[in-house]
Design a protein that fits this description.
Structural class: mainly alpha
Order of helices and strands: HHHHHH
Strand content: under 5%
Helix content: 55-70%
Length: 159
């Protein structure tokens, strides 16, 4: 681990770019997962009408998922809260990166924060998305495994 931190601290700009891009990819994975949850138990026209009520920036902040998910509501709210914590961590990370550029922090702090964001925010997002995704061979053209329960009456459980 120490060797990884030393290697990352030699090029802090590359470290920041990679961390931010991986974070946005993890955010996209969360967005797609929550979008699949939002589609559950709704018609396409109702979903389109719901999405038109929110602006692009509001949808980027995941506001259209709050209170509108009908399937696995607790899981959906937990994912929204987790993403908001992730945005806060990214803001702190970018602020510390700015302070590094101004000379207040050493490069090792940037590399430690990059590894921490990857382990605490990005990796769990990828893991949840991977666990809930359908296998390619037996997927039956569904993106996530819970989509096969579209017509069930149980709205509390994820499966």
């Amino acid at each position: 681990m120490q060797i990884l931190i030393e290697n990352l601290s030699t090029q802090p700009l590359l470290c920041v770019i990679i961390s931010v891009s991986v974070f946005f990819f993890a955010t996209l994975m969360n967005y797609l997962l929550l979008d699949s949850l939002l589609k559950m138990h709704r018609s396409k026209s109702a979903l389109k009408k719901l999405k038109k009520e929110y602006t692009f920036l509001q949808r980027l902040r995941f506001l259209h998922f709050e209170g509108n998910c009908r399937h696995a509501v607790k899981f959906c709210n937990g994912m929204i809260m987790y993403q908001k914590i992730g945005w806060l961590c990214l803001a702190v990370y970018l602020f510390v990166s700015l302070l590094f550029v101004l000379g207040f922090f050493p490069a090792t702090i940037i590399s430690w924060l990059s590894v921490a964001i990857f382990l605490c925010i990005d990796l769990p997002s990828f893991a949840v998305s991977w666990v809930l995704s359908r296998p390619l061979l037996f997927g039956r053209f569904k993106e996530h495994s819970f989509e096969k329960y579209h017509n069930t009456d149980n709205h509390e459980s994820l499966f």
